[in-house]
């Protein structure tokens, strides 16, 4: 429905619901393309608040809360996370909205989910934009101090431990506090289980199978590290984001959104 922001739940399996927000402020006589926005770890669809006003007049936007996060059903600590299941959730969300082919914009760890989605369902993905992606090889979480911190003091304490470093010097203290509290709302059980299954995001061997045009937006200080694997994606380009933030989708939202819109218009 044009001219509205709609929130709803989609049951993807028994007792598991995905919260979805649909933003569409395009002209009602047009047929806009669809952009699927995927948030990072310990976040929700609300992480895209600075992006939505820049996109919603041009595109229909689908913003799901990943299972376990935001308003979606929390996951138990012993839940066995898998890329296949997370991709299946995206397929279900897109089919519910009758979105046959989407531009995917992903931040942080969801970049790997987006890549796997594009590899396994190439006809459903028109383009990829990866914002602040981590390396495509993830070691199984062995950081006992981090897990203990979450278990004993909650997700907010874990987020607070290095939020200023994640967001960089350009973010004011009020923003750092907001993002800390925002990420801190993640259920402890979800976060503990998710952190212990990071190995499922190892997709380095499959990067050559990505056929879609791909834009990679990475912090300037990480360009060499990102370029080491980004060049394996055939139709990809790498753009540096200025500053010293690692969560550039948050700290440099307008810059990243402008680059993304320009890229989508080009490939469309």
From TrEMBL:
Q: What keywords tag this UniProt record?
A: Hydrolase
Q: Which GO terms describe its cellular component?
A: membrane
A GO molecular function term, named singly, is: monoacylglycerol lipase activity
Key word Endoplasmic reticulum present: no
Mind listing the GO biological process terms from this record?
A: acylglycerol catabolic process
Looking up InterPro entries in the UniProt record yields: AB_hydrolase_1, AB_hydrolase_fold, AB_hydrolase_sf
- Which Pfam families did the record assign? Abhydrolase_1
* Residues covered by the AB hydrolase-1 domain: 34-140
What PANTHER family does this protein's entry cite? HYDROLASE, PUTATIVE (AFU_ORTHOLOGUE AFUA_2G14860)-RELATED, MONOACYLGLYCEROL LIPASE
**Protein name as annotated:** Alpha/beta hydrolase
Annotated organism of origin: Nitratireductor aestuarii
């Amino acid at each position: 429905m044009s001219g509205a922001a709609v929130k709803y739940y989609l049951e993807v399996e028994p007792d598991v619901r995905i919260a979805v927000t649909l933003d569409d402020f395009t002209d009602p006589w047009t047929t806009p393309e669809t952009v699927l926005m995927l948030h990072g770890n310990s976040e929700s669809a609300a992480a895209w608040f600075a992006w939505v006003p820049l996109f919603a007049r041009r595109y229909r936007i689908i913003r799901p809360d990943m299972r376990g996060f935001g308003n979606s059903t929390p996951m138990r600590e012993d839940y066995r996370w898998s890329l296949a299941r997370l991709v299946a959730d995206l397929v279900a969300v897109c089919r519910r909205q009758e979105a046959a082919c989407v531009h995917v914009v992903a931040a942080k760890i969801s970049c790997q989910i987006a890549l796997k989605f594009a590899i396994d369902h190439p006809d459903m993905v028109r383009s990829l934009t990866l914002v602040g992606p981590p390396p495509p090889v993830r070691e199984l979480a062995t950081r006992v101090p981090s897990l203990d911190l979450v278990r004993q003091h909650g997700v907010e304490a874990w987020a607070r431990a290095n939020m200023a470093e994640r967001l960089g010097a350009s973010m004011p203290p009020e923003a750092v506090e907001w993002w800390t509290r925002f990420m801190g709302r993640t259920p402890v059980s979800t976060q503990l289980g998710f952190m212990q299954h990071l190995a499922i995001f190892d997709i380095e061997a499959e990067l050559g199978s990505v056929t879609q045009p791909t834009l990679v937006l990475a912090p300037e200080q990480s360009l060499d590290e990102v370029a080491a694997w980004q060049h394996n994606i055939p139709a990809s380009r790498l753009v540096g984001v200025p500053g010293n933030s690692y969560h550039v989708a948050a700290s440099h939202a307008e810059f990243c959104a402008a680059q993304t819109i320009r890229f989508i218009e080009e490939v469309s």
